[in-house]
From TrEMBL:
Enzyme Commission number(s) from the entry: 4.2.99.-
Pfam families (alphabetical): Vgb_lyase (PF24684)
Highest taxon, organism lineage: Bacteria
Matches recorded under InterPro entries: Vgb (IPR051344), Vgb_bact (IPR011217), WD40/YVTN_repeat-like_dom_sf (IPR015943)
Function: Inactivates the type B streptogramin antibiotics by linearizing the lactone ring at the ester linkage, generating a free phenylglycine carboxylate and converting the threonyl moiety into 2-amino-butenoic acid.
Keywords attached to this entry: Antibiotic resistance, Lyase, Magnesium, Metal-binding
Cellular component, GO, one term: outer membrane-bounded periplasmic space
Molecular function per GO: carbon-oxygen lyase activity; magnesium ion binding
Family of the protein in this entry: Belongs to the Vgb family.
Name used for this protein in its record: Virginiamycin B lyase
Cofactor: Mg(2+)
Source species of the chain: Bradyrhizobium niftali
């Protein structure tokens, strides 16, 4: 659905200012990493550890939350990793923009394997990646690309984004669909997994700056809107949208993550906070950092735990749900 179709449809935008809630039964814990390491994204692993990208030093790291210790491995000369996700093989896979490659790190010995993009797609500015249900790895490049890697064969296909520069966040739904967000293009798009074509869907707020996306359990697409300070949700089943503005005067919504309870977590650079949104009650919880300029760029989690990278302070933050009753 394009913008003109949306405006003419009966699925009108629901724009509301939700009520605001203080912190509930949650516990926040910080894990300092090396100053200047340049934390960016992370991915909790099944074994309880947390993998993280250190863009400033060209490294991938693994945090053990039990004692706060961590190990790092260099991804190569000139490395500048951005996103990381855990593959079906249990290994972390990284969008490594510095070497214009997808990197895999073996968890046992930290061996690094690179899958380089073709030369004609140099400087793709790789951002984030996700695995579809068939085990293919899909990734975005903010210079105007998205692509697919077959991990077993190493075969790679790269596609030009329909509106040029901007592809950034990416997600896979329970139904198996892959969607990405375009920051510069201010749209989201569903990828045809067979052909690689992208179907553009424009949010109702003009020039909103769709930065990251995450699917909930119903395969609805949640969008963090950097320019507008909104969080939006698109339901592909009926083409509808709903939009909410984050608390505060000038929110800047960066990251989005939907947990196992379908609660939506976001980061707000202006508020120096992580924000939790409950779609059922339309209420926000705001978790302000205890240090200025936290700049949490990405969120991920597992049941009962929300994880994020404070890029401004080079700390990893965990917000844990405390059982009550």
């Amino acid at each position: 659905m394009n913008r003109r179709q949306f405006l003419g449809s009966s699925a009108a935008l629901l724009a509301v200012r939700p009520s605001f809630a203080q912190e509930g039964p949650f516990r926040t814990k910080y894990f300092p990493i090396s100053a200047g390491i340049g934390l960016h994204d992370l991915a909790p692993a099944p074994d309880g550890t947390v993998w993280f990208t250190a863009q400033g030093k060209g490294m991938l790291g693994r945090l053990d939350p039990k004692d706060g210790t961590f190990k790092t491995v260099s991804l190569g000369q000139g490395a500048a990793p951005h996103g990381v996700t855990i593959g079906p093989d249990g290994a972390p896979w990284i969008t490594e923009g510095g070497q214009n490659a997808i990197a895999r790190v073996e968890p046992k010995d930290l061996k690094v394997t690179l899958f380089r993009l073709p030369e004609k797609f140099a400087s793709a500015n790789l951002n984030t990646g996700v695995f579809d249900k068939d085990g293919a790895y899909w990734f975005t490049g903010q210079s105007g690309y998205y692509g697919r890697l077959a991990p077993k064969s190493g075969e790679m296909s790269v596609f030009r984004a329909p509106k040029g520069v901007g592809p950034y966040g990416i997600t896979v739904t329970p139904k198996g669909d892959v969607w990405y967000a375009s920051l510069a293009g201010s749209y989201i798009a569903k990828i045809d997994l067979a052909t690689g074509n992208a179907n553009v869907v424009e949010p109702p707020t003009p020039s909103q700056g769709s930065r990251r996306v995450w699917s909930d359990s119903k395969s609805r697409i949640w969008v963090s809107e950097w320019n507008s300070g909104h969080v939006s949700v698109h339901d592909p089943a009926d083409g509808s949208w709903k939009t909410w503005k984050l608390p505060g005067e000038r929110p800047r919504t960066y990251a989005v993550y939907v947990d196992d309870k379908d609660k939506v977590w976001l980061t707000d650079f202006s508020a120096n906070a992580i924000v939790r949104f409950d779609p059922a009650t339309e209420r926000f919880n705001v978790f302000a950092s205890d240090k200025p300029n936290a700049n949490v760029r990405q969120l991920d989690g597992r049941p009962g735990e929300l994880w994020g990278c404070e890029s401004g302070n080079d700390r990893i933050v965990m917000i844990q749900t405390i059982a009550t009753g």
